[in-house]
Design a protein that fits this description.
alpha/beta; Rossmann fold; seven-stranded mixed sheet; 9 helices; 7 strands; 20% strand; globular; binds S-adenosylmethionine
């Protein structure tokens, strides 16, 4: 349960949307609307849909673009151990907010395009590769090259069956077909959160099966 009573449902709090988060989020949106990509934090329905996409037996997770921590809260509630979770947020005010709200979780104030190096530095890859990257990034407002850099870093750190879980407010996948082809990724549309503001769709990206098989077949280096 959260150390913050305003987030604790036993105290009548709201687990995903609380006034402090909304105010903080809105203030950052006024400073940098493109990077924030949304006026309000995600809602609980979307957070639930995101964590439902974690693979079975999921342990090691990196969350990128955490904002005020709606998905962080949902990940912890879903049983991800704080020691196996790294949260990456580029905005220093939001990174401070996340440190206060989730004292047991490692928060890196950094660019998601370095998430593989960050996961390594935080010791998250010591026992194996990542099982999932949960992304709250506004991918549609990014350049194609930044989007591909972030996905490249994610799949460098993800294991074979690892999943990159992303939401979008747009009508189609925010990772374009030519980008998926270039990166060797397949995707499926996992679901829709109509009660989110704005309504959002969740997509899951994974390595193409042929790439997984190729990496298994590769002979060990001499
Ligand atoms: C749409 S908000 C989502 C916040 C939160 N996940 C939610 O759903 O409420 C996007 C967040 O990504 C962060 N962000 C944008 N570009 C980033 C980058 N390159 N690396 C890490 N975080 C980034 C923004 O500062 C912002 O907090």
């Amino acid at each position: 349960m959260s150390s913050d009573p305003s987030l604790d449902p036993r105290h009548g709090g709201e687990a995903a949307i609380d006034l402090h988060s909304i105010r903080t989020f809105l203030r950052q949106w006024m400073r940098d609307p493109v990077k924030m990509a949304s006026v309000t934090p995600s809602g609980r329905q979307l957070a639930r849909l995101m964590v439902e996409q974690l693979p079975p037996g999921c342990e090691r997770v990196v969350e990128v673009g955490a904002g005020t921590g709606v998905f962080t809260r949902a990940l912890l509630d879903a049983g991800i151990a704080p020691s196996k979770l790294l949260v990456v947020e580029i905005n220093p005010d939001l990174a401070d907010f996340l440190c206060d709200r989730f004292p047991g979780v490692a928060v890196a104030c950094a660019d998601a395009r370095h998430l593989d190096t960050l996961a390594e530095e935080h010791g998250l890859l010591a026992g194996g590769k990542l099982d999932a990257v949960v992304s709250g990034l506004g991918m549609l407002s990014m350049s194609s090259s930044l989007r591909c850099d972030i996905l490249r870093a994610a799949f460098a750190a993800l294991g074979d069956g690892g999943r990159f879980i992303q939401f979008t407010y747009g009508p189609t996948s925010p990772v374009r077909r030519h980008e998926r082809d270039a990166l060797g990724l397949r995707m499926h549309r996992a679901g829709f959160a109509p009660r989110n503001l704005p309504p959002a769709t969740v997509y899951v990206y994974q390595r193409l099966r042929s790439r997984q098989i190729a990496s298994v077949r590769q002979p060990p280096r001499p």
